[in-house]
Amino acid sequence: MEFVTIGSATHAGMKRQENQDYHAWHSPEDGSKKGILLALADGMGGRYGGSTASKIAVDVLIETYYKDMSHSISESLEKAFQKANEEVNARGRTDINLAGMASTLTAVVLKPDGMHYAHVGDSRGYIIYKNEIRQFTNDHSFVADLIKAGQITEEEAETHPEKNIITRAIGLESELRVDAPAEPQTIKKDQYILLCCDGLHGVVSNEGIMSTVYEYKDPELICEKLVEKANEHGGPDNITVVIARVDRIGLMSRIMNLVR
Amino acid sequence: MEQKIGDYEIIKSLGRGGFGSVWKATASSGNIVALKILNPQVLDNARVVKKFFHEAMILAKLDHPHICKLLEFFPDGNNYAIVMEYIEGVELKKLLKDQDGQLPFDQANKIAKQSLEAFQYAHENGILHRDIKPGNIMIGKNGDSKIMDFGIAKISTTASHDTAAKMLSVHYVPPERFDPKKEIDARSDIYSLALVFYEIFTGRRAFMVEETSQIMFCHLNEIPDPPEKYRPDMPHEISQAISRALEKDPDDRFKDFKEFSAAMEGAMPILDDSTQAVDVETLKPEPVSEVDIEKKKKKKGPVLMIASIAVVVIALLVGGYFAYNMYFLPGTEPGQGPDATVTQTEPGKPAEFPYGKDKNIMVVIPKGEFEMGSDTYSAEKPVQKIHMDEYYIDKFLVTNSQFQKFVEETKYVTDAEKAGGGMVRIGRRWKKIKGATWEMPDGLTPIEGREDHPVSQVSYNDASSYCKWAEKDLPTEAQWEKAARGPDGNEYPWGNQDPDDTMANFDNLIGATTPVKDYEKGKSTYGVHDAAGNVYQWCKDWYGTGQRAEKNPSGPASGKEHVVKGGSFIEGTESLRSSNRDRYKPDYSSYLFGFRCACEKK
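YS: structure for the whole thing
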């Protein structure tokens, strides 16, 4: 039996014809060394390339991550992100129809003894536990940087004319800086880990996301309901949500939670 | 690759620009062209399409030897294609990267002159560039410059409303661009071009930071060093013109490219404008009021110092009299302490050993006299022979990782954390910055990866608490000064010659702290590192002036402020002098303040 229950949902939204998001997860049969990898990507740009970019990003990520022999999970994630970036760039250089495509990419590795993540772009990862919701990824966007530089407030960011600009993405440049912290995060029983693109977090509030989680409890059902909610709010963009619920944790996590 | 866009046969990819991809292609006439594919997906928006065509028509009219010509444009599916003149050559960006240093002066000057001509022409035709950067300046095979992508930034920004992943290089973006309420005009292009000039003349960027938010912060707040600091042989007027073009307020820059060109040629007197900051001397706050003016005039380079807040306080205290508290070190118990681990490295060299809870290496400072104080500033007077008993002092500054251990063990909360932030210098002003704590000293940059740098953004109280935990003490000013300058009253830890970048981290040469073991060449006679530069160091003494006790002085019995010594990574040579001193309240926390521990002979 797995130690987590995973669910997901994706939808083009009410304004777009094409769904350029992509997501997947992989749970290897041979035990827990590499953990379960969840990934979500929001593709963009190119003549026809947005959906290609997100698919390449996720597929290359998963393949490279499980092949990589690095000792640490964060190193394997970093390498897999770099490889995904190379692939998306390479395809954009050879096929004019795919030129200019790019994608966000957010990945989480879950093990009974903790989780790791890696991230570029403005998709988000949240941890929901005991009626609290916390974003554990940093948005790589123009407005997030303006906030950090002390130029605007978070409220001003919400209505900023350039809030759509992201500053890091897979396929944007040959060099990519990835957020991939070496330190694992502890996990707790009954904790939810939620990945989503801006089609959800830009539309449904954090409180709205959390109340849906606690109302429906089952990951698959929560995801469906969240997509519905985003569409009720106009569904301006593609919507994708992936949720993992922790059903039991390893001994190490239990000890760590006790001492914390 | 057999692909076609419109009537153009694609040959190969030329790379990606900020707003799309660029391809080498053949026109039906057989001519080779560059084809740019934009990314916006906005054909449903008639107004935007109209605007695009309007702009592009103007662009197509530009005809100048140093501007890459726009030949044609057409909508293509969900995108736009722009056909441009194909230029064989190399991007300035690549040229700078390959050069890995400064361009030869004549080459830099030629690029500058030709660019200025091109921009002046475009502006006279009502076209702004809006995205000037080395990647948009092509250097042809004959060495001539061609400016690419005029006005494309404008087209693209009016057109996008989707999530757009832009190669948003903010290295060359003017400060007004970060405020949507502010208009962009010719002076914005002037700022960006001046940053390119800065790089081609000096071989380095005006702001040496990489994180996007930090770059934004610098554009908004940091005043760059004058270019001539990094290329002393360049004409003064070019350096001045670049500095003026980099003013934060567009009103303080040149009003157009004609003025900019004239200033670069030295044809325009620009020094009578009081708003500019083009000289190093004017970049830093005024020195403390007690300075001996004559001496200051003789000294070259930036003088002190920390906030102007301090200036006022110091002035008020001049002439104040403090009683001194003479105290002798208590007797020592034989057999205690670290003697067993003392290693006499070489004959004549002071002994060193790890000691205290933090196991920091301590240096034994042998008992004897040393010369304390100087006649340079009245706060440092008088010059006095002082006898010191043997004591130990940390060879290196207390590091972030050591301080972290202390915090983890004791759950200590620093003064800056209690106050919600500490002091950081923003441009020329000092400000209390929210979130500036020892874990993020400037409020922006976390200490991750800088474990071996000195802890900073700590107050006297914080430093003192650490020392207590480590079973040590802060050094008295006399202990600090003797360890720094040795017995003979040297000006600096390494002797009397002025510092250079191999001896100390100072004068904003690096603009941040450096690992505590980096400046081997700058260590003192006794082997103490970073006694000049990197961060200011708290001393135990209350601040006082005048005659000191002759033996083991430890400052006045009471006071309001404690002494800090050693200068910091932003201060000039003057503050690096070992007799230099300043003082701050016990709870004052700044990103320039750290400390080392000392203790009596055990």
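YS: worth flagging: The interface with chain A takes residues 1, 3, 5, 10, 13, 16, 20-21, 23, 37, 39, 76-79, 160-168, 170, 178-180, 212-214, 216-217, 220, 433, 443-444 of chain B (CB under 8 Å).
IM: good catch. Also The two ends of chain B are 79 Å apart (CA to CA).
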